[in-house]
UniProtKB/TrEMBL annotation:
InterPro entries: AbfB_ABD, AbfB_ABD_sf. One of its GO terms (biological process) is L-arabinose metabolic process. Residues 1-99 form the Alpha-L-arabinofuranosidase B arabinose-binding domain. This is Alpha-L-arabinofuranosidase B arabinose-binding domain-containing protein. One of its GO terms (molecular function) is alpha-L-arabinofuranosidase activity. It comes from the Bacteria.
Length: 101
């Protein structure tokens, strides 16, 4: 995790083994792309770390440019989907991550 490309209050996920490539959403699916330094890329690659939707001691990541969408895994893929505290427990668990260094 590095400071957000679109907002330093957020975070971006830069590849450790391929520096300069970041996780970004494209058609709601996450992919690892090189930073093309456009405003849309920076927005797609920025997330706000929040208290976990399923466990507040863990973390969830809200999209910078789709503020009701959260990073989550589904069907073995990372994507962003609209989620909230009223979403099903299973959906909230899919969007809750334990961050370690």
């Amino acid at each position: 995790m590095v400071p957000g490309l679109a907002d330093s209050n957020g975070v971006s996920f830069e590849s450790v083994n391929v520096p300069g490539r970041y996780l970004r959403h494209y058609n709601y699916a996450l992919r690892l792309d090189p930073n093309d330094n456009t405003s849309i890329f920076r927005a797609d690659a920025t997330f706000y770390r929040t208290a976990g939707l399923a466990d507040s001691s863990w973390s969830s990541f809200r999209s910078y440019n789709f503020p009701t969408y959260y990073l989550r895994h589904r069907d073995y893929l990372l994507r962003i989907d609209p989620l909230s505290a009223s979403s099903s427990l299973s959906d909230r668990q899919d969007a809750t991550f334990r961050v370690s260094s």
